[in-house]
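Sharing a chain and its predicted structure for anyone who wants a worked example. Both blocks are below, sequence first, tokens second.
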Amino acid sequence: MKKNLIISLKLTLVMIILCAVIYPLLVAGIGKAAPAGGKGETISVNGKVVGYEKLGQKFSDDKYFQGRPSAVDYNAAGSAGSNKGPSNPDYLQLVKDRIDTFLVHNPGIQKEDIPADLVTASGSGLDPHLSPAAALVQVKRIAAIRNIAEDKLRATVNEHIEKSIFGPSVVNVLKLNIALDNLK
């Protein structure tokens, strides 16, 4: 019995060193080698961090492009989807309410012209991107509010389209809104 106890204590000590010391140091080292030292890819304006490249954030003012809705209100600590299926009546009502709200804020847009990513949350609830169509459908509203030519806004959207060989083209909403604020 004494022999088994000593073996158990030795194994416990080895596992503590492996799991509580070596593994965390290895993960921290890998994090330091990641972009921005593992602190996330921040976006700064005039030396002030205004957001993160890979996290969506809420833009509710009509003078800005609005991103995808978030099931977690853009809280990165609670990344999650709504977990409601497309036939769930609560989910259908939520999407209908989002469509109605979008139409109120974007007069002249038809319901069938609203891209799905403007009224449905992503799986994580933190997607920082929109489809180019979802950004372009908002141009008319922003042009009217900011008194900027629609052609100039469309060109700005087109300049911010990120193409990918692995998926659809997207527009980072935060970067687009920063460019929007810099338009003269």
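Comments welcome. The mean pLDDT is 90.
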